[in-house]
Amino acid sequence: MTVDKAFNESTAMNRILGKQLKYGTWLASTVIALGIVVTIFRWRMLPHGNASTFGLTIIGMGIALIILLPILRVALMVFMFLHERNYLFAMISCIVLLIIGLSVVVGLYLPPPNKNSSLSKLRCHDWSFMRNVQQNLRGPKSSLLSPCMDRISMMHTLIRQG
Amino acid sequence: LDAAFASWLFVMSVGASALGGILGMASGIFIVPLFTLFGGMDLRTAIGASIVSVIACSCGSAAAFLEGGLTNVRLAIVLEIATTLGALTGVLFAGLLPVSFLYGLFSIVLLVSARQMLVQRHDPISDTVADDDGSWTEKLGLHASYPDRVLGRRIAYRVRRLPRGMFLMYGAGMISALLGIGSGVLKIPAMDASLRLPIKVSSATSNFMIGVTASASAAAYFIQGSVVPGIAGPVALGSVLGSIIGARILLQVSNEKLRILFVVVLAILAAQMLLAAFHIELFGKPT
Question: A89: nearest CA in chain B?
Fold first, then answer.
């Protein structure tokens, strides 16, 4: 009886984890595909090459989503084991999360091995584009981009209304 | 990022991932040699792109194994302590090791996978091993069963020699982080040698663990900026598509000649990587 119960619980867990991973992969792939399309077909609303960085930002988000999928899976397992009152395995899952957290800390404080790569153009870690947008929203220097920004804010209001 | 470059990356990843899927391996083992040897890409950039695609492939295919009841989730989370620790070590060392060493290590891994293709994998569960250390696996309750479609019933199995398995998984995790591969090609023989699981269970469980192992190192590389969105994006997308195609073909191909062809391809890639390792050493090219 207890064995049967344990078996059922584990398969329910399997199903939930499987769904999370499957739909997560689809979502992340869609975001990346969107980013690639935006990058290649240079979004017309943002001229002066900003569209290219904007697309890369979207791709970056999709990649972040992919990296987060298994981490979320472990977090999900913590809750599921707690729900099963299986505290030993909840703790084991927490340890795995902790190690991943340590790896993130290492990433934050250890300098990257190749700083001057020839491909630095394709990097998108300076969020200068976002900063530009912020400046445009705030300050008077917005002569070049202001028509676009107007259009974007108009779209936002339209979306909110509709 | 122009359309031609993106589509080149995309097509190459679809091919690499489909090939990996046909062989029952992850895509990373083909992606890195392809991009560095034939695409002229920087090794670390290729590793950054590859590790993301490895996660995508693992997550995309995990669902089928989980729903089939083949994945031993408890065993996976226990072993993931070792693999993520290995990945953490790999991230720490990645910046210190010279590129030529990484090329050399990669060629060894390629040779190991070639050997594994050549040797027929036998079901390790048939081997009789003395139950010398039941304590850990017993305490954690790792023994389980899986449904066998051919026999039409559930088959119970025991997990053996967990400490040794953990130790080998640590090494596999480290190599995964250093080379940007899933290192399923190392995990599966490690599991065969120590834990003695049924083939289907170890394949499914290894695939399940690959995602977490790779995300531990990918998170660090992503923050460091080693993951280049313009390259990793098309590669990840292509790999997901390729793995779906590969899984379809896997069901039909079990040809002896084809397997030997793959062994030859792997051996050639290994030789190329080894040459690349010494080339860089000879001319003293800075990393």
Answer: B74
